[in-house]
Here is the input.
Amino acid sequence: MIRVSHLTKEYGQKKAVDDISFEAAKGEIVGYLGPNGAGKSTTLKMLVGLLQPTSGDILVAGYSAETELLELKQRVGYVPEEAQLYEHLTLVEHLQLMGRLYHLEEELIAHKIIELAKLFDMEAQANQRISSFSQGMRQKCLIMAALLHNPDVLFLDEPFTNLDVTTVTFLKSLLQRLAELGKTILYCTHILEVAETLCPRIMIINAGKIIADAPVAELREQTNQTALNEIFVQLTETTGLDEKTDEAIRIVMEDTPNA
Here is the structure.
């Protein structure tokens, strides 16, 4: 459902994404992990057609991002890292707009809005303007918009940000069920605890390059580490964690600059 070949994105002399290739099959949840600035969000933006690659090929749900971008966009749901919503609209109006952009029938749009608002505990806010929403409410709105048109592939960039524990638990269960029904999910995060419980397969990107791509069990065996956070540190840190912590303590506790 997702096939990426030699994908590169350059900004001047900097390669935000550096010649990466991977595939994700139907019904698979893949965790896409990396430090801040590693290239995670840039990758997702290219996969959904918001950024044009410098080079490389993208195939999503059988459609090429280069020659069939409109067809590709119709089959994906995307939750961006930062909320980009029409704040002057109400929740209902925003979701109506999203449904119409995907050419859904009006009756189906209305039905889905009611049911999704109920499931995400947003019934009371359905006719309030988004400008009045908390960060958690905005995140729920993004997730509902991504699910509204029943996409084949979901691209999720830090989807659990600002959500309460109840919604996080519900969303994890929902994503697992969607995968069982054949949806392909690429989940981009640096929150390792959720990735460890949600994603059977993990990809780690660092400085624009994919440095690991395997099931969690295999990564544990390769690194001789049990916890995903230890695996992550071992694969991405160039400076030892203890030494780095000691240096931070030294700087924080310093009274005067060194001569």
